[in-house]
Amino acid sequence: MSVFDNDRFTRRNFLEATSRGAAAVGLGGLASSTMPTAKSDESQKPKLPAGVLGRTKYPVTLISFGAILIGEKLGTRILKAAIDQGVNLVHTSKSYRGGRSIEACGRLFKADKKYRDKVFFCLKSFTPEKESETDDGLKMLGTDHVDVVLTEFHKPSLKRLEAIQAQQDKLKKKGKVRYTGFVCHVDMNGAMEMVLEKAPDYFDITLMAMGMAAAGKSKDKSDADTQRFLKNLKALREKGIGILSMKSGAKKVVTKGAKLFQAHAKAILEAGADSVLTSMNTLQQVQMLKNLDLKNPHLTPRERKAAVDLDRSRSDACLMCGRCNKVCPRGLPVSDLMRIRMYHDEYGWPDHARDEFSMLDVDAPGLSTACGNCSVCTDVCPVGLAGAGTVQQVASFFV
Q1: Domains of the chain, first to last
Q2: pLDDT tens by residue, 234-251
Q3: Which end of the chain has fewer CB atoms surrounding its CB within 10 Å, N or C?
């Protein structure tokens, strides 16, 4: 459960949560999947404010490190600086920057193993049927295990869910992971509801797009999908599933300085995340973390206004609600295309956008004329982003 559960949270609870499970900071062995009890040694406590990552009891720092932007030796330096600053959760994928991101992580861990032991490491998985995918990642990282493999579960599919469970059971049995997890950024409500119905006690961690949940959102809070998302998120937390936030806008806000980033981070934490996964690619962004004050979990009036203003500045950003995928008469992966547009235009990651597009079974030239005058997805998109024009725009990136 997030330390920002306002129904049960007190300042005393928060201070206790920041020290709970502190011995887990140095995870190395796999003798037990149960986290050790906290020690009184102050040196073992996280340097940055921390919460508890669901049933894992891991004292995760409220800001964690998304490694999607790092690569080469500078990327290794940035990761090292983030861990030295106190960040204790890192996420990457073999697909990020053509493998350069995971290589940057591995370069640090191979040079000094203690850095691997200082972090809770998350690795993304695309294909649950291929154990070699995880093995390749472990080899690149120079380690025999990661803490969790977060497997893509973007749409409610029982067959896919069962494949993920089989994958993760096998990985746990072989000592290659400690915990179970999934990642979702398409039909989040559908995916969460299937997990809650079919496997409510199976997963330990999820990495979830939090666009619909941010406090101070400029769109109508009575929106049915938003309320459904918040209800499902709360249900996951009540089941003990740790919530990592992604695609909340943190990557953009981290460049705007400590005060604005602090307001954004607190809004996401208040909405239900245990940690705000943030893509950082400069030493200045990492150094800014020491200027954050996240000890008080509640947004001040000024911070709430800043969160509202920031959200309004992204009022046309894809919420990843999945509505557009469900109505397309041609079965196009519209939601994926909107996300790829975000990578290309909003985030400024053209290489990653191209990598993601290559994973879709679509032809760019054909895509540019596929929609014709159809406006079905536009009619259901809550922010007016999806539509023939936007699909054609994405196609133009890759023709």
Answers
A1: 11-312 (3.20.20.100), 323-398 (no CATH)
A2: 999 999 999 999 988 777
A3: C
